[in-house]
Amino acid sequence: MKKLFMTAMMFAASVGLTNAQTAQKQVVEEGGTGPFKSEVVGDASCPGFTVYRPQNLKEVVAKQGALPVIVYANGACFNHNVEMRLLLSEVASYGYVLAAIGPYDEEDVMAQWRGVLKSAYPETKGEVIMANGEKILPMTAEEKKAQQEQQAKQREEAAKKAKKNKKQAQPAVPQFRTYPKMLLEVLDWLTDQNAASGSEYYHCLDLNHVAAMGQSCGGAQVLGVSHDPRIKTCVMLNSGIGDMEMMGTTKEALKNLHQPMFYI
Q: pTM to 2 decimals?
């Protein structure tokens, strides 16, 4: 009996570890303009993704019923969703649970975007505002000089390394590469959470109403998983393939569509 009890306790503990565990949480732009103020959540049991959902999820579900689901892929197939978090937060405020590719890692992503925006800042532009509300100003003369010196040093070091290796240095692997199947992986996680007693999402998700949405390269990722019967709607934002191949997806993937496509 004691052995049976210990086995049951170990099983319960292992199941509990798979349940949703909110580790970080914040509100973006007062939670959107919809009827249900939204929040952005980083979950310890799903570290590679960020969840956008109504605040007080259980209360909203008690009033509205289970909420439809959206899985989202980023522009440039980046492994972060900060660039579009205003849109995602807004959509969530209308009663959706969105799971977006990319970990909840705002500070690191913001630091990267800050550098990109300052470097590309057109001198004629009045101001650029990041997703966190921070204003980006043009680079000063001192900053430009420091940047040029740093770039010259990096080129010099790369040339020395290439000469030492007696061959051209290979291009670096893209830092933010993701893949289409991640949309299905997070849908699997949501499905498990919806069925797991004790999960924050237990019986909160309407898995008969699932959309896959993607921006630019993320739209190609949506096409790449459009064959999955669980996906009832596809949304492509600013995506174009033509005769190209992106993320292993071509125009041939259009034959896999079995659901409506919302193409903007």
A: 0.73
